[in-house]
């Protein structure tokens, strides 16, 4: 189940990275600043990086360290993110 933490001026989603992304689909509201906290909990190879050209981020994910990325919410749509080898994928839906 997706954990969206919403306040008046920010939305935050926590994603566990272990054999994929949980949740793999993130729904955000358009126009409210957003961030995603990625936390990798096992050492499966290509999940040590998460990146998205569409959303403009690339982060190394050390084990058991939370990495936060800012996500633009100025446009509606679906935007993909994936591991370093593009084997594991997720998406952000901005509505």
UniProtKB/TrEMBL annotation:
Gene3D superfamilies per the UniProt record, alphabetical: Cupredoxins - blue copper proteins (2.60.40.420)
Entries under InterPro entries matching the protein: Cupredoxin (IPR008972), EfeO_Cupredoxin (IPR028096)
Domain EfeO-type cupredoxin-like residue range list: 7-92
Coiled coil location: none
Pfam families associated with the record: Cupredoxin_1 (PF13473)
Superkingdom of the source species: Bacteria
Name of the featured protein: EfeO-type cupredoxin-like domain-containing protein
Taxonomic lineage from the root: Bacteria, Bacillati, Bacillota, Bacilli, Lactobacillales
């Amino acid at each position: 189940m997706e954990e969206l933490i919403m306040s008046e001026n920010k939305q935050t989603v926590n994603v566990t990275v272990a054999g994929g992304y949980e949740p793999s689909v993130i729904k955000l509201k358009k126009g409210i600043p957003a961030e995603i906290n990625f936390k990798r909990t096992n050492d499966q190879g290509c999940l040590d990086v998460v990146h998205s050209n569409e959303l403009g981020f690339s982060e190394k994910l050390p084990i058991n360290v939370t990495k936060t990325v800012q996500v633009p919410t100025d446009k509606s749509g679906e935007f993909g993110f994936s591991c370093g080898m593009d084997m594991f994928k997720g998406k952000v839906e901005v509505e």
